[in-house]
Write a structure and sequence with these properties.
Mean pLDDT: 91
Pfam families: DNA_ligase_A_M
Keywords: DNA damage, DNA repair, DNA replication, Ligase
Helix content: 25-40%
GO molecular function, one term: ATP binding
CATH superfamily of the largest domain: DNA ligase/mRNA capping enzyme
Organism: Ancylobacter rudongensis
Structural class: alpha+beta
Number of domains: 3
Cofactor: a divalent metal cation
């Protein structure tokens, strides 16, 4: 096929509404060398050009045909960022004007990463398997103890950042979202990560890591890193979605590594998690030892722990939900934690942000390129607005013995103790409110830890003991238990603004 035939075939694919006919026409396109070239450069998720393509009409003077040997050098320079900015726009425009109309249109479609004919990577691979690499990362199911194959399991904190997968291909790299879209705001970190990989490759004695980073004796880097990008002091994760602003201050919290050939493969790939973790620890260690000071903080490794049973999983979940994001990011630096505390306040609740939850991972599991029970997540999935009907103090001997330990809320006739989610200031404020209610109810405010006290809502309203009691409290929880209680309930905020309506919603 020449450019004219390729263009007509693309138009025919766009015009038909029949899936079978689309696939037949696409099969013909993919069978030709030029068609295959156009499909690969337009749909390969690992190839990007760093510019927004603008259709530039041919001036029809030179009328040059769209040929691989003419177009590929330009695409290579763009994809390798050897040609960028205004210079890239100028050269692309000049080439489009020199091509004939079909060629100019084809180049525009390729640079747009979309032939605009109603096909996608999966459609292309259905007619020619393996032509387009499918970007697919491992994703987690909700924790289900019945799916645990054996104990112990590995546990990590679940971070509420932006999942970003770093791909190095033929010595060039880029960050991608979980759906394979390029994260341009992290491009300024690419050279730092490649430098870290080169340092690790040159200094490590771990053969598995060497083979993971490079499969041609160190000549080129081809590997994948999986993790979360966290903004820290700048606290603006929205910057990851923008293309015109660098995510300055971002840290990469890594939790997986593998070779690019493994990541490109289909199904369950790579070494078992335990071996991948050893390689990742070595990668980060060597990178930090060899990188300059201004780059060392960029690369972090997500902490990992062992859990031996379901009870320990739930204990770690409570620890995660009690750990502030500032504490996690500061890594023991008290001054940094104080700075981060001010920058990591939840705008909705006015409270410090906390970790999202935990991940439970099979240490012997391979990297499944799909949603898998090899990784399971536990996080606060829902919230409900529930009425406060009782109070209890902290445990005897604890710092909260003579102040607020928690609230008792009522849900469909079931009393639920909510002791988590309160800051020390919250507890002090609520203690003062409770003392006013206790006086109106004619009782001593020190009611102890268990069982505490609770009242019928009618009695609370009758004496107007509604400073603390009787108010709506937004409570987050992991799941409803068989007896109607809530697993891992935590206070989010008072919802006086919603008094009179009850709402249940799934958390975003």
């Amino acid at each position: 096929m020449d450019a004219y035939t390729v263009s007509r075939r693309i138009e025919e694919i766009a015009a038909t509404g029949s899936r079978i006919e689309k696939e037949r026409l696409l099969s013909e396109l993919a069978a030709s060398d030029l068609g295959k070239f156009v499909l690969n450069w337009a749909y390969n998720p690992f190839i990007t050009y760093g510019l927004t393509a603008a259709p530039t009409p041919s001036d029809e003077e030179l009328n040059i045909n769209f040929r691989r040997e003419l177009i590929e050098p330009l695409l290579l320079k763009l994809s390798r960022r050897e040609l960028t900015g205004k210079a890239a726009e100028r050269e692309v425009g000049e080439v489009m004007r020199a091509l004939n109309p079909d060629g100019a249109r084809l180049l525009y479609l390729v640079l747009s990463k979309d032939l605009k004919c109603g096909i996608a990577e999966t459609t292309i691979n259905a007619v020619m398997p393996g032509l387009i690499p499918i970007f697919s990362v491992m994703r987690a199911h909700t924790f289900d103890v019945k799916k645990v194959k054996s104990w112990p399991q590995k546990l990590e904190y679940k971070l509420d950042g932006n999942r970003n997968t770093f791909i190095a291909k033929d010595g060039h790299g880029g960050f991608f979202t979980r759906t394979g879209k390029r994260v341009l705001s992290l491009d300024f970190l690419v050279q730092g990560v490649l430098r870290a990989a080169q340092v690790a490759l040159e200094t490590t004695t771990m053969k598995e890591l060497q083979r993971t980073l490079s499969q041609d004796n160190g000549r080129t880097l081809n590997f994948m890193l999986d993790g979360e990008a966290m903004m820290g002091l700048f606290a603006n994760t929205g910057v990851f979605k923008r293309t015109t602003e660098d995510a300055v201050g971002a840290e990469l919290h890594l939790y997986d590594i593998m070779s690019l050939p493994d990541f490109d493969a289909i199904g369950s790939v790579g070494y078992p998690l335990e071996q991948r973790r050893k390689m990742l620890v070595e990668f980060v260690r060597q990178a930090k030892a060899g990188l300059p000071e201004n780059l060392k903080e960029m690369i972090q490794i997500s902490p990992q722990f062992f859990v031996n049973n379901e009870a320990e999983v739930h204990e770690w979940f409570e620890k995660a939900r009690a750990k502030t994001l500032a504490s996690y990011l500061a890594r023991g630096d008290a001054q940094k934690e104080a700075e981060l505390a001010a920058a990591t306040i939840d705008k909705e609740t006015g409270k410090p942000k906390v970790l999202e939850g935990i991940m439970v991972k099979d240490p012997g599991g391979l990297y499944d390129k799909k949603k898998s029970y090899g990784w399971m997540k536990m996080k606060a999935e829902e919230t409900e607005d529930l009425r406060i009907v009782g109070f209890y103090n902290g445990e005897a001997g604890s710092k909260y013995e003579f102040t607020m330990g928690g609230a008792i809320v009522e849900r469909n006739g079931v009393l639920i103790r909510v002791g988590g989610g309160w800051s020390d200031k919250d507890r002090a404020d609520c203690w003062e409110l409770w003392k006013q209610d206790a006086a109106l109810l004619g009782i001593d405010p020190l009611v102890g830890f268990k069982p505490g006290v609770h009242f019928e809502l009618g009695r609370i309203k009758a004496v107007e003991a509604t400073n603390f009691l009787g108010r709506l409290l937004e409570v987050e929880f992991h799941e409803v238990t068989p007896d109607g209680s809530l697993r891992h309930p935590r206070a989010v905020r008072f919802r006086d603004d919603k008094d009179g309506e009850l709402e249940t919603r799934e958390a975003a």
